[in-house]
Amino acid sequence: MAAPCGRMASRSVMQFLCTFSRSTSGNTGFRQFGTGSLCRMTLKTKSVSETSKRSPYALAAAVFLQRLPVISADCAPIEQTFKDMMLQIELEKSLLSDHELRLMEDAERLKRKQADDYDSDEEDSREDQDIVLTQDLVDSWEQKFRSFQPAPRVRDDVDRDMSSVQRCLADSLVLVAEQTLGDQKLWLMPQTQWQEGETLRQTAERALAALPVGLKATFLGNAPCGVYSYKLPKPLRTESSLGTKVFFFKAILSDSGPSAPPNSALLWLKKSELQGYLKPAYLMKVERFILDL
Q1: pTM of the predicted structure, to 2 decimals
Q2: Which pairing describes strands 173-181 and 266-269: parallel, antiparallel, or unpaired?
Q3: Which of 208, 215, 218 minimizes the C-alpha distance to 165?
Q4: How far apart are CA 206 and CA 195, in angstroms?
Q5: How far apart are CA 155 and CA 3, in angstroms?
């Protein structure tokens, strides 16, 4: 009795279950499934679920291209007062420069020269040359300063041209483009539809490259900074296509390239000017990530 029990215990659990399934399949009419059929059923169920859960919104990417200020902004009255105070403190605590020390030495030598006890001919000739050279240097600096004309901070002809990237140098500007959606022409950030096989950032880079002017920009990361969803007009909606989701990517202008042609439909706008071109719902999404520097 011990030997049969030992052989039975040495059998694996899998062999016992297979024997049990074969013995019961003939009696009860159960169907035995293999691993291949189970995998096919799982893949078929997954494909059906993915198809049923596919979003009716198309994907697009837009580039939020910003030109940072080129010159410093005008100081407010309180900022100008604080600036003058800090400059005065720095002047009082600063050390004399080499040129200032040289001027003081020259003035001291000239004072000794005018005294009655000054009788060194060799030092006199050397000091005269030094004093003349120092004064000539100061005169040349003053002459250059009087002839220097700084560039104007406000240029009415350029600042009024909204298609120029050189306008409003003290402000931060945002690029908007006129694009056609359905039967409407709207001012939007440069955007394009996503294509199979590319990332959303690559889509945004393609939207920037498609502009009629060569603009070089530095993208700030691979993750979008915002998203905006809009629905198509009712006559264009279908069950599988209701609208578009636009993902925005930040970029900083690094090279403006050539000037934009007059009919390029591109505008460089300040933050305060966007409300005159963008729709309120679109502007509400965009204002959240505008860098107002």
Answers
A1: 0.63
A2: antiparallel
A3: 215
A4: 10
A5: 107
